[in-house]
Amino acid sequence: MFGAHSWSPSASHSALWVVLSAFWVSSANGLESQTPDLGELLKVQAQVQSQLSHVSRALVSVESDDGAASGVIVSPDGLVMTAEHVTNQPGRKLKLRLADGRQVTAKALGLDRTTDAAMMRIEGDKKNWPHVEPCRDLREARAGTWCFALGHPGGYDAKRGAVLRVGKVIKQMANGLQTDCILMGGDSGGPLFNLEGEVIGIHSQIWAGRDQNVHVSVAPFLRAWDALSKSSVVRSWGSGVGGWVGLMTRRSKQGELEILEVAPDSPAEKAGIKKGEIILTVDEEKVSDQPQFSEAISSRPSGSVVALQVRGKSGERRVTLKLSTRPEVEP
User: Fold this and answer.
1) Which of 114, 67, 63, 113 minimizes the C-alpha distance to 88?
2) Is 52 exposed, middle or buried (0-12, 13-18, 19+ CB in 10 A)?
3) Could you list the pLDDT tens digit for every one of the 331 residues in the chain?
4) What are phi and psi of 83, to 5 degrees?
5) Which of 43, 73, 318, 319 is the most buried (most CB within 10 A)?
6) Domain residue extents for the chain
7) Nearest-CA neighbor of 163 among 177, 178, 152?
8) Rg (CA), the chain
């Protein structure tokens, strides 16, 4: 099963390709390459193979005018977890390609514009869709643990089938996971599994570096399950279980954290922060992407005072503000 880059399908998995990433673990000095021993690889191989037949049936390819993406069915009645940037808005109709090649229609439900979490539901009366279970306890998804990713990079391909990547968690964040399971275009919205076949994340951000793959964890899905399944839009800028700052951000092409939106009457607006400015640090700690910023904010309770270093048209400045509580979801 394991090879330097790919594995030729066997008779038992005739429509599946696997990529084994280089492995990384967190250390005090950053990321270090680590080669697992043969015994560990064989054990992981057996665990992954024992789950593939079941979990691959729940994988779907999303086909729309925006391009190819992925998703995973997580309930018998056709509830699908995917990424917010795949569905874009509640009520949208999307075509899904099932593992056996059949095409069905799904309706976009709720989404979380901060964490990139979203749900869809397959239309029709069928109540026995092949599905997998989300992990209810993410404490074990810590740096160094094994995981595997499924998806349809480039879109559904009946001859090739799904693509499997096996790797490790590099970092666990408030609402995300960073792994070395290399993602490609079309993987967005696809599932990240633990070795028990439970969904621990949904593919979100795809970067060039093999260690820069970011997945929305199941945490925001579980936290807002009812809201998402009822087609609500969650707007909890600076999300997490802690305080709220009132900013929606994204990583720019220059690798900086750009402010996309400032919530009305939020701590950020009251402090004079503007759309288009760049966030450089939170309490003097450098941040360069949304998961880092989300973790920095969510780790501080409401009422905490934080200092942001931002850069705008007039140069850099230091802004001090007090975090408040998160707003309710928008129906």
Assistant:
1) 113
2) buried
3) 433 223 333 333 434 555 555 444 443 334 455 566 888 889 999 999 999 999 999 999 999 877 899 999 999 999 999 999 999 899 999 999 999 999 999 999 999 887 899 999 999 888 899 999 999 887 778 889 999 999 999 899 998 999 999 999 998 887 889 999 989 889 999 999 999 999 999 999 876 556 668 999 998 898 788 889 989 887 654 444 567 888 888 888 888 999 988 888 889 999 999 999 999 999 998 988 877 888 788 777 778 899 999 999 999 999 999 988 766 554 4
4) -100, 150
5) 73
6) 1-232, 235-322
7) 152
8) 20
pTM above 0.85, yes or no: no
**Residue indicated by tokens 């970011």:** 214
Residue whose token pair is 């795949």: 86
What CATH architecture is 235-322?
Roll (2.30)
1-232 CATH fold? Thrombin, subunit H (2.40.10)
